[in-house]
């Protein structure tokens, strides 16, 4: 298993294709955040986790938000179904939390659907707290730095 923060444009171009593949198999969403990497790679941070064959099996995309009260926002997070419930998502999230804390961002926010019980349990298990419920969306926040 390998954790890495992707920064080189050539690596990002290859990575985008793999991440879109993962997205199609895990979360039905548009690919706006991933496509933004093609044009503004520094606007979105992407951490990936690879299997023993060095294939990307999951990713977590986050960006810095806010003006005065800067924080991180997880915009997309997925692990291929066959690698779920094996600790890969936890390792990827913990790696990302360490990275975000080194940038002196004190909060991490993430949104999920109210009906996505698996994601909700995952975030709560990792120290996130529900801060807002609006319609079908739940906003969670992590502040334990």
Please give a structural write-up.
Helix content is 34%, strand content 33%. Mean pLDDT is 80; it is low at 30-34. The protein is an alpha+beta fold. It has one domain: Aminopeptidase. It has a seven-stranded mixed beta sheet with strand order 1-2-3-4-5-7-6, with helices on both faces. Helix 1 (9-26) packs antiparallel against helix 2 (32-39).
Quick recap:
This protein is an alpha+beta fold.
In order across it, which strands form the biggest sheet?
A: 1-2-3-4-5-7-6
Oligomer: single chain
- Distance from N terminus to C terminus (CA atoms, Å) equals 26 Å
Helix coverage percent of residues?
A: 25-40%
Strand content: 25-35%
Tally the helices: what do you get?
A: 4
Number of DSSP strands?
7
Give me the CATH architecture, please: 3-Layer(aba) Sandwich
Question: What's the CATH topology label?
Answer: Aminopeptidase
- The string of secondary-structure elements, in order, is EHHEEEHEHEE
List the domain count as a whole number.
1
Cα Rg: 15 Å
The chain-level structural class is alpha+beta
Largest sheet: 7 strands, mixed
Mean pLDDT: 80
Overall, the morphology is globular
Low-confidence stretches: 30-34
For CATH, the homologous superfamily is named as Gcn5-related N-acetyltransferase (GNAT)
CATH class: Alpha Beta
Provide tags for this entry.
alpha+beta; 145 residues; single chain; globular; Aminopeptidase; seven-stranded mixed sheet; 4 helices
Question: Any chance you could write out the topology, listing elements then pairs?
Answer:
Elements (H helix, E strand, L loop, with lengths): L1 E5 L2 H18 L5 H8 L5 E6 L5 E10 L5 E9 L8 H15 L5 E6 L3 H9 L3 E6 L2 E6 L3
Parallel strand pairs: 4-5
Antiparallel strand pairs: 1-2, 2-3, 3-4, 5-7, 6-7
